[in-house]
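Lecture notes, part 5. Sequence design as translation. It can be helpful to think of inverse folding as translation between two languages: the language of shapes and the language of residues. The source text, in structure tokens, appears below.
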């Protein structure tokens, strides 16, 4: 089953839920989304030097030291 089919199936299930069960489903989906986000963050934080590079990037943006991506990649 592909992602579009799964989304349609989930929507069908959601449409049949009572308000109380819908609240439980929404809470559970929020939990899953937050957990996935946290896992992605943890993965980034495990990259050696990531935090330093990220902080340097934020300083560069704040100082206006940026390059238009169109000048770097003209094939996108």
């Amino acid at each position: 089953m592909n992602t579009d089919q799964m989304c349609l199936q989930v929507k069908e299930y959601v449409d049949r839920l009572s308000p109380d069960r819908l609240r439980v489903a929404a809470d559970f989906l929020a939990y899953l989304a937050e957990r996935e986000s946290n896992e992605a963050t943890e993965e980034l934080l495990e990259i050696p030097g990531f935090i330093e590079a990220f902080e340097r990037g934020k300083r560069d943006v704040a100082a206006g030291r940026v390059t238009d991506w169109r000048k770097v990649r003209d094939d996108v």
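The translated text above is only one of many valid answers, since several sequences can fold into similar shapes. The first helix runs from residue 3 to 15.
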